[in-house]
Amino acid sequence: MSIDVNGLTKRFGDFVALDDVSVSLPTGQLTALLGPSGGGKSTLLRIIAGLDKADSGTVSIEGTEATKLPPQKRNVGFVFQHYAVFKHMSVAKNVAFGLEIRKKPKPEIEQRVDELLRLVHLQQFSHRLPSQLSGGQRQRMALARALAVEPKVLLLDEPFGALDAKVRKELREWLRRLHDEVHVTTVFVTHDQEEAMEVADEIVVINEGRVEQVGTPDELYDRPANDFVMSFLGE
Ligand code: ADP
Ligand code: MG
C-alpha cells in the first residue's frame, strides 16, 4: 500500500507549478520532498492533503482515490512551518482538539492525550500555554496534535524551518524516533539536503514542478540521476 500520485499537473495562471508528477510513496515510509524554493513541494503536499486542487491527475491513499475527498475525510495529519497552535488553549487542549471535534468519549481523549504527551516528552507541560514552551517544544506539541487522530498519513511542510540550527537537529531526531515508534506514513518537505539525507528513508527530489529523482539517501549520493541532483546535493 502507498500514496500514489499519478500525473498531477497544477497551474497558477500560466505558470506550471507541477508538471505531470507521478510518484509512489510506500506505506510506513518516511519520505522527504527535497528541492529548491519554488520547486512545487508545498503545492504537492497541499494537494495530497486536499488543501488545494490539481488541474489534472489523481492522488490515491491506500488504494482509495483521495482527490475527490475533502481534507477531513483523507485521514491526514498536517504540521506547518509556522506553529498552527491555539494560543489560548493549554498544551493538553491543543493536542486534544482533533479528538474533541470528533466527539470522542472524554476518558478516551484523556488517555490518548496522556500517551501522546509522553511520546513527545511534554507530559509535565500539559497545563502550560503554548507561549510558555520553547520553539522546539511547541513543534513537538504540533507533532503530538497531528498524531492524535491516528492519521494514515502525516504531512509536514518545512516543520523545523523557523527554528535555530541546534533545535532543528534535535527535532530531526525526534521525527525519526516518532516515526520508528508509530510507523505512520510520513511525507516531509525540506529544502535542506542534509536534513533529508539524515532523516528520510527515501527522498523525492523536486525541481521546477518535476520529479528529478527518487531514491534512498545512499542511492542519491552514489548515483545522482542528473547534473541538477548532483549540484543540489553538493551544495
Ligand atoms: P516550494 O514549496 O517547493 O518552495 P511551492 O509549491 O510553494 O514551492 O510553489 C511552487 C511555485 O508555485 C512557486 O513559483 C510559487 O510562487 C507558485 N505558487 C504557489 N502557490 C501559488 C498561488 N497560490 N498562486 C500563485 N502562485 C503560486
Ligand atoms: Mg514550500
UniProtKB/TrEMBL annotation:
Domain ABC transporter: 3-233
Keywords: ATP-binding, Cell membrane, Membrane, Nucleotide-binding, Sulfate transport, Translocase, Transport
Signal peptide bounds: none
Taxonomic placement: Bacteria, Bacillati, Actinomycetota, Actinomycetes, Propionibacteriales
Protein name: TOBE-like domain-containing protein
Keyword Iron-sulfur: no
